[in-house]
Design goal:
By secondary structure, the protein is of the alpha/beta class. Helix content is 51%, strand content 9%. It has two domains: 3-253, 3-Layer(aba) Sandwich (Rossmann fold); 272-359, Tyrosyl-Transfer RNA Synthetase, CATH 1.10.240.10. The protein has helices spanning 17-24, 31-41, 46-49, 59-67, 86-102, 114-118, 125-140, 158-169, 174-181, 189-199, 204-209, 224-236, 274-282, 292-298, 306-315, 319-331, 336-362, 365-368, and strands at 27-28, 53-57, 73-77, 106-110, 149-153, 215-220, 243-247. A seven-stranded mixed sheet has the order 1-2-7-6-3-4-5, with helices on both faces. Helix 9 (174-181) runs antiparallel to helix 12 (224-236), helix 10 (189-199) crosses helix 12 and helix 15 (306-315) packs parallel to helix 17 (336-362). It is globular. The structure holds tryptophan. Residues 75-79, 109, 111, 114, 198, 217, 219, 223 line the site of tryptophan.
């Protein structure tokens, strides 16, 4: 049995992260590996410490190669279809930290054909293109290094990518993608082909430079399926299999495992107004008891409290302060109203800064983008 609720284009219900790791052969990041990472990075990013980035494939090998003077490059991506929410930002925040700590290149793929092919969105490619530019601004606003970052839209980098994609595609049969993605006879042939485009940046630098370069991909677990297929193919083509480091999903404000782009109220968007944030956080699920009196007496459950989870995943990087918040929930000393007001303040402060960075970076967009 495999966790069939985690598809590349749909995640449903509760996600069992341990089961996912076990079923697909990921290794959980243990103390020993944490130490090995720390050797190069200094104090671990809170996303690692808190086991939000929790599993990997061959990260130890990537570090061994780095130690030997054979540095890796990073690769991640984002398929545009609408504005980004906080959950979308997590892999990029972590990728930026890795770029800083290891001083390495990063390739960021913006597959502007992916959602067009894989989903019934009623958006033209030109409309998606506009959204894609917006998404790139949100990404570069995190502060990626200009000289070490290459961002590309598939439709504008096809000259470079297509030749490599067909090499991959030749090794992927219909039956493989059918099994891996749950595709059927009614799936359009563009969607079937797409996974070979997502494979390309995992070896593009090696193909460009004419020798093998290790590649590390930070991603959310729903993207693993592409690379389960690609890793075998890349080995057949004579490249290294890419290493992967996996993040859990930021839960939705109403407590579902993943923020859904299709339910606007369940997610905090990077373009939300302060009023919208206040309203959404106000309605968020907390782990609290039915009344203040009961909450004070019995306390609540931080794992079931989305206010706590938003602090843990993103908005409270300071471990001591986070512990204070989680304890306040557990012991019933912080009530929902206070909790929510504090988170609303943090989110709005973050968004205000983010929006201004975004505007600042607009003028540097071309420094990051590559095209044919
Ligand atoms: N398929 C991803 C999405 O739906 C986009 C993507 C392309 C990606 N290349 C990637 C994500 C590499 C992680 C790693 O958003």
């Amino acid at each position: 049995m495999s966790p069939s609720n985690i598809g590349a284009y749909k995640v449903e219900g509760k996600v069992d992260y341990d089961l996912f790791a076990e079923q697909y052969g990921l290794k959980q990041i243990d103390k020993e590996l944490e130490k090995k990472i720390e050797k190069y990075t200094g104090p671990l990013h809170f996303l690692l410490k808190r086991k939000i980035f929790y599993a990997h494939r061959e990260l130890d090998w990537i570090l061994d190669e780095y130690e030997k003077g054979n540095p890796f490059y990073l690769y991640t991506g984002r398929a545009p279809s609408g504005p980004m929410h906080i959950g979308h930002l997590i892999p990029f925040v972590f990728a930026k930290w890795l770029q800083d700590k290891f001083d390495v290149d990063i390739y960021i793929q913006i597959p502007d054909e992916e959602k067009f092919l894989a989903k019934d969105l009623n958006q033209s490619l030109d409309e998606i293109h506009q959204v894609a530019i917006d998404n790139v601004l949100d990404i570069i606003a995190l502060g990626f290094k200009k000289k070490k970052t290459k961002i590309f839209f598939d439709t504008q980098y096809a000259g470079k990518m297509y030749k490599q994609a067909v090499r991959v595609a030749k090794h992927i049969t219909f039956s493989t993608v059918k099994d891996a993605f749950g595709y059927g006879n009614d799936t359009n042939i563009g969607a079937l082909f797409y996974t070979s485009m997502q494979a390309v940046p995992a070896f593009l630098k090696s193909a460009e430079e004419g020798h093998n370069i290790p590649c590390l991909i930070p991603l959310a677990i729903d993207q693993d399926v592409h690379f389960r297929v690609a890793r075998d193919v890349l080995a057949k083509l004579g490249y290294y299999k890419p290493s992967i480091i996996y993040t859990k999903f930021l839960p939705s404000l109403n407590g579902e495992s993943k923020m859904s782009s299709s339910n606007e109220r369940s997610a905090i968007y990077l373009n939300d107004t302060p009023e919208a944030v206040k309203e959404k956080v106000g309605k968020a699920l907390t782990g609290q008891q039915a009344t203040a009196a009961l909450q004070k007496k019995h306390g609540g459950n931080p794992d079931a409290c989305m206010v706590c989870q938003y602090n843990k995943f993103f908005f409270e990087p300071n471990d001591k302060k986070l512990e204070y918040i989680l304890n306040g929930e557990r012991n019933g000393t912080i009530l929902a109203g206070e909790h929510k007001a504090d988170l609303t303040k943090k989110i709005n402060a973050f968004l205000r800064k983010h929006k201004s960075k975004r505007e600042h970076y607009r003028e540097y967009l071309d420094d990051y983008m590559v095209h044919d």
